[in-house]
Design a protein that fits this description.
two-stranded antiparallel ribbon; TIM Barrel; 12 helices; globular; 263 residues; alpha/beta; single chain; eight-stranded parallel barrel
């Protein structure tokens, strides 16, 4: 691995081997998302607690302060919407040259294994890896499932993650599931957990993050469960404690409560 690749990965994965990525890319297929209508206002108080932002080039340019930000993972796939026929019909929307111009630490792309567009999205990943490896830019593969949430089980997710790694992804983002160790042990590259739809309680979030970390994940890529929370700073601070300080779900809940009541 050359210096540029190692340097970019080191920006994302902290010295303890863990990471807290925060996605704010939801608008690329949802449009204005609840509590993300003004991304700059949403993100600013959360920056001290996350290690990187996952974002599209449009929001990066218009809403993220280039003088005081975090490392950027650039969303480079898209072309579909909730109003369309199939969320899986994605293509590459942003060039590697653009990623270099924006000085990002990594790029991220969705793959839809098992969908009608499996072949296209897997080739999108493979071609992106080909181009990015030449420039020393790591690729994060996102094992997306579109509307088919029932696919979030260990056998399916393990297959998705392994395929992504086989095609050259340096990091894989996937959903937590029961028996999550079956996902991580079969994937030779680091795995980070996605949040999916917002959980009903804070403790529910803390419990699945803690469980996943114990079973091989290096961290999370959580958005809605952070910035849609009633107390997003408290949530971000508590999650960071699990990821980087080894806090238990109960310890994270206590920190959450203290933080939200300290205003």
């Amino acid at each position: 691995m050359d210096w540029g690749m190692r340097n970019r990965i080191a920006q994302l994965i902290q010295p303890d081997g863990h990471c807290f990525f925060m996605p704010i890319d939801h608008g690329y297929f949802q449009g204005p998302t609840k509590r993300l209508e003004k991304p700059d206002e949403t993100v600013k108080p959360l920056l001290p607690y996350c290690d990187a932002l996952f974002v599209t080039r449009g929001i990066l340019r218009t809403c993220i302060d280039p003088t005081s930000s975090k490392p950027i993972i650039l969303r480079v796939s898209g072309g579909t919407s909730l109003a369309g026929k199939d969320l899986a019909h994605e293509g590459i929307t942003t060039s590697v040259r653009e990623a270099i111009r924006l000085n990002v630490a990594a790029v991220g792309i969705s793959i839809f294994v098992g969908s009608e567009y499996e072949h296209e999205t897997l080739l999108n990943l493979a071609n992106l890896v080909n181009d990015c490896e030449e420039c020393g830019i790591p690729v994060m593969a996102v094992t997306a499932v579109g509307r088919e949430l029932e696919k979030r089980e260990d056998r399916y997710l393990a297959m998705c993650c392994r395929i992504a790694a086989e095609l050259g992804a340096r990091v894989v983002k996937t959903y937590w599931c029961k028996d999550f160790e079956k996902v991580t042990t079969g994937c030779p590259v680091p795995v980070v957990m996605a949040g999916g739809p917002k959980c009903k309680t804070e403790l529910e979030v803390f419990e699945f993050v803690y469980d996943g970390m114990q079973k091989g994940a290096i961290g999370v890529n959580l958005g809605r469960n952070v910035w849609q929370d009633k107390h997003p700073v408290a949530m971000a601070k508590a999650l960071r404690a699990i990821i980087h300080e080894g806090a238990t779900p109960q310890g994270a809940q206590e920190l959450y409560n203290i933080t939200k009541n300290s205003k």
